[in-house]
Design a protein that fits this description.
The chain is an alpha+beta fold and about 400 residues long. A hairpin with a 2-residue loop joins β6 and β7. The protein has a single domain (about 10-400), classed as Orthogonal Bundle (Cytochrome p450), CATH 1.10.630. α14 packs parallel to α18 (about 355-370). The chain has 18 helices and ten strands. It has helices at about 10-15, 20-30, 50-55, 65-75, 85-90, 100-110, 110-115, 120-130, 140-145, 150-160, 165-175, 180-205, 210-215, 225-255, 260-265, 270-280, 315-320, 355-370; strands at about 30-35, 40-45, 60, 140, 290-295, 300, 305, 310-315, 375, 400.
Length: about 400
Amino acid sequence: MSQLKNPPSLGDEYLQNPHDLSARLRAEGPARPVTMPDGVRVWLVTSHAEARALLTDPRLSSDGVYDRLEYARQLAEGKKIEFSRSLAAHLLNVDPPDHTRLRKLVNKAFTGRTIARLRPRVEEIADELLDAIPENEPVDLIPAFALPLPIQVICELMGIPADDRGRFAGWSGQMVSTAAPEEIGAASEAMAGYLAGLVEGKRAEPADDLLSALVHASEDGDRLTVPELIAMTFVLLIGGYETTVNLISGGVLSLLREPAQLAALRADPGLLPNAIEEFLRFETPNNMASPRFTKEPVVVGDVTIPKDELVMVSLLAGNRDAERFADPDRLDITRPTGAHLGFGHGIHYCVGAPLGRLEGEIAIGRLLERFSRMELAVDPAGLRWRSSTQMHGLEALPLLLRH
């Protein structure tokens, strides 16, 4: 099969319906060149098997990838984003052995026991938010519930003061969007400055929170440096809520579009853990894995990706691949779990996956317990997905809820 002559652009049509273009690209081959909204040309991987293989392929590197991205953006747009270097040098942008060292240190602080003991607090926050939701009048589930729940949880876990959470959410939203380069750069610099002050505060006066644990975590005398702490805090905060917001809202919309699946879940709440896995597959909250580049030519299907090419692996596309999932465009909350790429794959598999699963389970479970009737308050055709190739999430989800 010949290479596409005109790489498609991932503009608004793609953002509003990424499944359609992903399926067409996948039909032509597992990897094809595309143009990102900022004009940068990358290779997009859309098949499940190749996605899993490439996410563990040492010929694809994360080291210094943001420098390459910024250079490519400068060529495409004539200006750089100037993303803060303090935030860019995080877990997702380094290879072993640096990645191995950083992951080992964060794993010491971000343990399964730490997450498991959060359940009562997550349930409490969910109930408080649901108490405030009005009945029988339209309410946007995202600002009322899906957004504040994971923000409050991750900020409490990390030790972010309550008064600062709104600013943090604003910076985060800008950085994962397709906003103008100067806006993304300004948001990243503002967040970097804020986090630097926060890290210094935890070094001077540690508290019972994850950031203090990270500041003081050590392995054979090794500790995270201040720049590493800033970058680590950034990636944990962003990953700790962006994915979960999209998981909750996308999962609820998926159920509303399939009433039989909603009825089945209401009839058997024991299906909820399985349903969360299906939501992660069906409307994958993270569209694309972190960017990589080829250190040497890499054969993918019928094409060879040359050396020094940028590669984006679409987790969302891989999760709708009929070669791996039977009837992939159908929501099935009883589908066997496993194999989906909702939290990535390989060494960059999401460190916060257990927290995301816990929050999704509690949020959707509590919502269904509280309200016996749930319906869209707008025409489904009017719903819009966020202007982001990185995150796949709704801008708004207006609902009518009844006890």
